[in-house]
Amino acid sequence: MDNRRWSLFNHRFFLQPQVKLGTMAQTDAIRWNNRYQEESFLALREPRSLLIEACEWLPEGGCALDLAMGLGHNAAYLMQRGLKVIGVDISFIALQKAKSLCPQIMAICADLESFSLPANTFDVILNFYFLQRSIWDQVRKWLKPNGLLIVETMTQEMKALKPEIDERFLLQPNELKRTFADFEILLYREGWQDRNGEHPRAVASLVARKPSKLS
Ligand SMILES: C[S@@+](CC[C@H](N)C(=O)[O-])C[C@H]1O[C@@H](n2cnc3c(N)ncnc32)[C@H](O)[C@@H]1O
Fold it and tell me: Is 163 in a helix, a strand, or coil?
């Protein structure tokens, strides 16, 4: 890894409670900070099952980026497996909690709608339950050749259960697969999780490898 990339990890603490955000992003930050202060929202204490399922493809070391990291359970899992992790989230409260779970996580408080990192930096990128289509081009660039992309988020099927959800935050059928069609698809599926449980959700799940040369 070159010096420029190391410098990302050598920053001791990226957390900035006063991070400058646009008005929309400020509203999002407040909303998410409030949610992360509710006890019920802290229920998720495990890494996502897709991440555990994808462990056979994870590298033994290297650098990972966790987009919209939340409470850091996925990042902590990667760190236990020997990766360095940068987690980005708009919620300062979530990042504080992630840092207390795993102090070695590099936490960046930022709006992913206006965010940039150097190209070819990450061996692994996680994108769990945060749909921001405008960053997908960047995600392709941020991944190193042969880097692993792991994405899971809700699909339009979710409307059957929660009609009030904003369509923009739901994937179209096969959308992830189409978007990353030039990657090597290692796992792809759509369906319900926890159908009869506490948190039923219709999701699409993707594990894909960036080709060594992108055309
Ligand atoms: C449903 S949670 C998912 C958290 C985590 N990825 C997981 O799998 O549990 C969505 C996350 O997106 C973050 N978020 C929402 N809008 C954001 C934005 N514009 N930029 C960065 N993070 C954002 C929220 O703070 C929240 O932590």
Answer: coil
